[in-house]
Design goal:
mainly alpha
């Protein structure tokens, strides 16, 4: 399935605006751009690949704001969208969010998936506590 050129163009424009706002530190305005883009997807929006990266973008905003419950919902949705399952970055965030929920068994599983898919480098931009935790569970 493919989006029409007009819808795809509008979604990418809104997403780009969202990225610019988030990079400038205006997380709420950036999130609103991503949400507006997500709303442009046709019914059953989880079938569209654009939903995957839009949920990731929205989830990252919530993660950066330490709103872990909302971030978890976004990444949980993202993993169910096209190319979500097996995406190391999505598994990294899910692992970090399970860790923040004190669900260490699931955190181990998801962080291991991230490590297996992308290596140690994927952990380098975030709090080292997640890698330190994983190092107590598997051999890195």
């Amino acid at each position: 399935m493919q989006l029409s050129d007009a819808i795809y163009s509008e979604i990418t424009t809104l997403s780009s605006r969202g990225d610019d706002l988030v990079n400038a530190g205006d997380f709420e305005a950036g999130k609103q751009q991503y949400v507006a883009a997500l709303r442009l997807l046709p019914d059953n929006h989880r079938k569209w690949e654009a939903a995957t990266w839009l949920y990731v973008a929205i989830g990252d905003v919530h993660f950066r704001l330490k709103d872990y419950d909302k971030a978890f919902k976004c990444f949980y949705n993202a993993v169910q969208c096209p190319k979500g399952l097996g995406n190391p970055y999505i598994h990294l965030r899910l692992g970090q969010l399970y860790y923040e929920q004190n669900n260490f068994e699931k955190a181990t599983d998801e962080l291991t998936r991230a490590y297996m898919g992308a290596g140690i480098e994927i952990f380098m931009e975030d709090d080292p506590k997640y890698l330190e935790f994983l190092e107590t569970k598997i051999e890195i």
